TrEMBL record:
Encoding gene (name): ITGB1
Protein name: Integrin beta
Segments traversing the membrane: 663-685
Lineage: Eukaryota, Metazoa, Chordata, Craniata, Vertebrata
Keyword terms, alphabetized: Calcium, Cell adhesion, Cell junction, Cell membrane, Cell projection, Disulfide bond, EGF-like domain, Glycoprotein, Integrin, Magnesium, Membrane, Metal-binding, Myogenesis, Phosphoprotein, Receptor, Repeat, Signal, Transmembrane, Transmembrane helix
GO biological process: cell adhesion mediated by integrin; cell migration; cell-cell adhesion; integrin-mediated signaling pathway; muscle organ development
Keyword DNA damage: no
GO molecular function per UniProt: C-X3-C chemokine binding; collagen binding involved in cell-matrix adhesion; fibronectin binding; integrin binding; laminin binding; metal ion binding; protein kinase binding
């Protein structure tokens, strides 16, 4: 089973390698007929203009052409380039410095480039952007004066004044303008009765006439005038809740001359408390035309609010790209944030004075615009500065200029001889334009070069020249394509051990022809049984079968190249005990010749018995052993032969030795035992004495009671008391 898996995996590896090599070389797959077609196939492709080369082998990767023997000087491989035409550094300027004109301030670098592009080869450059400090700013304040703003009017007026004060802290070159808006001046947005047109408010409220948009103050540096005009504003009125704010925004954006916009940073502050009309809302008032995006101010008043309604879209874009051209962006923003793809086009939270970099790669595919120059522009949205890029495309090789039209080298002038090959005139085919497509249609010629009416011409391994396949040459001269349709080769057979046909055969038309005594798709199966012979002269020790020169053991207990190893048989532990002891602990009978006698297995030490491999965990049999050394210490190990036929021993690195007696507890125990025994004996003796005395006393008492003595004086009794009388004592 393992052998079959090995053969299958080897076969798949060879097939994958072959296909990857074939599909990965875009130069060969392009099947280019002339130099310009070759260099457009990919950035790695070169064209060998050596006259001795065939057309099919001229277009290839540079390394392959050089290996094949094409002189480096004979290879056409033009490269793209880039030139910076204008590269004014971004302005490093602080507020309070010398005042500059807006056109003298640079926020984007470089400003103009020229790129020469070859197909598949990106040209990259860095675009630097910096928000210049003290850069001129135009700010236009657009105020909602509908009746709903009555409660907020004073706050809005103060907001305008505060804006001017704060902006003056950011830049010294600051202009501010002011406009107001209410609503479209048609029903049902306002009341069109004459009285309501004069005063749209009810009661005693005095309101100004309704209007769509007024440019009250064009951009100016006069802050006092701005404050005065903002303070003079009065509210007006309308009928519905949404306001005509979008109409006003459009006019502010497109009426540059009336507003006074400069070519600097432009800001619009929009102040309202309500929503705005969307595209299509105007149908209620009979307004169906979309906004034309033009200025319609007369005497600073918007006159076309009753004709248009507005829709808008904000897009981050560069100018339109030619077909086949792609641009990739990588942004390097603040705090080390790097983004790619669509997010690579932008950086967020950019403050004044911040500098960021964009890496931009421009890549062409093929020959856009048929080689004509093209100009594209890249600029930050909302800024007028831009990068202008002139694109030039490499569509032909340098040797194309030296081509000879109607050259005699191309079959009596039937083609242009350029870059070492013939580029045939119309209706001529063949390597030297020797065939006429009028005589035989190209489709008919190709049909004779397709095997079994397939789609591949000459099996993609050759060129169809006038209806006959001419096979391609290989880098390695020993490798070749062959066959009527170039369908055969001598290098795509199965491999074994990274050798073609296992080194035991030859490759003929992608099939191995094996040497004698070898078989298999890769000639890696030996028919010689001598390698399976065991020491007892039996094939595989009688416990297996010989397949392709290797034993396949049928008895699961036996292993090894000839099925002679039995790691779980009795006696294995004793057999390897001395070697394990000397290798692991440096002791035992073989410690002096351990290196010589005991290097036949791999020793792996573990910390404790739980770390030893277990039979259920291993994919091969193993034996657990427990042996004792001369010091009565136990050591534990396992013995096995792994799947690679390597002998393997796992051993616990510490010995399990019996511990010696503890003298102090023993002595203390003996002394305590003696004392306790002595006390016990004394207690027993005392108890026996008490019992004996009580028995004797009881016996005495009994005898005393039984005695029949005379109660008179004992004749032999002599008193122990002697009485002496003093003769002279008179009793006084």
């Amino acid at each position: 089973m393992d052998l079959k898996l090995l053969l299958i995996s080897t076969l798949l590896g060879v097939v994958c390698y072959s296909n990857a090599q074939k599909e990965g070389n875009e130069c060969i797959n392009a099947n280019a007929k002339y130099c310009g077609e070759c260099i457009q196939a990919g950035a790695k492709c070169g064209w060998c203009k050596d006259p001795g080369e065939t057309v099919s082998t001229r277009c290839d990767e540079m390394e392959s052409l050089i290996k094949r023997g094409c002189d480096k000087g004979m290879i056409e491989n033009p490269r793209g380039e880039q030139r910076t035409l204008k590269n004014k550094a971004v302005t490093h300027r602080r507020k309070g410095a010398d005042k500059l004109k807006p056109e003298d301030i640079t926020q984007i670098q470089p400003q103009k480039l020229s790129l020469t592009l070859r197909s598949g080869e990106p040209q990259s450059f860095d675009l630097k952007f910096k928000r210049a400090e003290d850069y001129p700013i135009d700010l236009y304040y657009l105020m909602d004066l509908s009746y709903s703003m009555k409660d907020d009017l004073e706050n809005v007026k103060n907001l305008g004044t505060s804006l001017m004060l704060e902006m003056s802290k950011i830049t010294s070159d600051f202009k501010i303008g002011f406009g107001s808006f209410v609503e479209k001046t048609v029903m049902p947005y306002i009341s069109t009765t004459p009285a309501k047109l004069l005063n749209p408010c009810t009661g005693d409220q005095n309101c100004t006439s309704p209007f769509s948009y007024k440019n009250v103050l064009r951009l100016t540096s006069d802050g006092k005038k701005f404050n005065t005009l903002v303070g003079q504003q009065h509210i007006s009125g309308n009928l519905d809740s949404p306001e005509g704010g979008f109409d006003a925004i459009m006019q502010v954006a497109v009426c540059g001359e009336q507003i006074g916009w400069r070519n600097v940073t432009r800001l619009l502050v929009f102040s309202t408390d309500a929503g705005f009309h969307f595209a299509g809302d105007g149908k209620l008032g009979g307004i169906v035309l979309p906004n034309d995006g033009k200025c319609h101010l007369e005497n600073n008043v918007y006159t076309m609010s009753h004709y248009y309604s507005l829709s808008s879209e904000v897009i981050l874009e560069n100018s339109k790209l030619p077909e086949g051209l792609t641009i990739a962006y990588i942004s390097r923003c603040k705090n080390g944030v790097v983004s790619e793809g669509e997010n690579g086009r932008k950086c967020s939270n950019i403050s004044i004075g911040d500098e960021v970099t964009f890496s931009i790669s421009v890549t062409s595919k093929g020959c856009p615009k048929k080689g004509k120059s093209e100009t594209i522009k890249i600029k930050p949205l909302g800024f007028t500065e831009e990068v202008e890029i002139t694109l030039n495309f490499i569509c032909e090789c340098e040797c194309h200029k030296d081509g000879v039209k109607n050259s005699p080298l191309c079959h009596f002038g039937n083609g242009t001889y350029e870059c070492g090959a013939c580029k045939c005139n119309e209706k001529r085919v063949g390597r030297q334009c020797e065939c006429s497509s009028n005589d035989v249609a190209t489709e008919d010629m190709d049909r004779t070069c397709r095997k079994d009416n397939g789609t591949d011409i000459c099996s993609n391994n050759g060129d169809c020249v006038c209806g006959t396949c001419e096979c391609k040459k290989r880098d390695n001269p020993e490798e070749r394509y062959s066959g009527q349709y170039c369908e055969c080769d001598n290098f795509n057979c199965d491999r074994s051990g990274n050798k073609l046909c296992g080194g035991h055969g030859r490759c003929e038309c992608r099939v191995c022809v094996c040497d004698p005594m070898w078989t298999g798709s890769a000639c890696d199966c030996s028919l010689d049984n001598s390698t399976c012979m065991a020491s007892n002269k039996q094939i595989c020790n009688g416990r297996g079968t010989c397949e392709c020169g290797m034993c396949k053991c049928t008895d699961p207990k036996f292993q090894g190249p000839t099925c002679e190893t039995c790691p779980t048989c009795p006696g294995v532990c004793i057999e390897h005990k001395e070697c394990v002891q000397c290798r692991a602990f440096g002791t035992g009978e073989k410690k002096d010749k351990c290196e010589k006698d005991c290097s036949y297995f791999n020793l792996i030490k573990v910390k404790d018995r739980d770390k030893l491999p277990q039979p259920n965990d291993a994919s091969y049999p193993l034996m657990h052993c427990k042996e004792r050394d001369a010091n009565d210490c136990w050591f534990y190990y396992t013995y096995a032969v792994n799947n690679n036929t390597e002998k393997e021993v796992h051993v616990v690195d510490t010995l399990d030795c019996p511990t010696g007696p503890d003298i102090i507890p023993i002595v203390a125990g003996v002394v305590a035992g003696i004392v306790l025994i002595g006390l016990a004996l004394l207690l027993i003796w005392k108890l026996l004495m008490i019992i004996h005395d009580r028995r004797e006393f009881a016996k005495f008492e009994k005898e005393k009671m039984n005695a029949k003595w005379d109660t008179g004086e004992n004749p032999i009794y002599k008193s122990a008391v002697t009485t002496v009388v003093n003769p002279k004592y008179e009793g006084k």
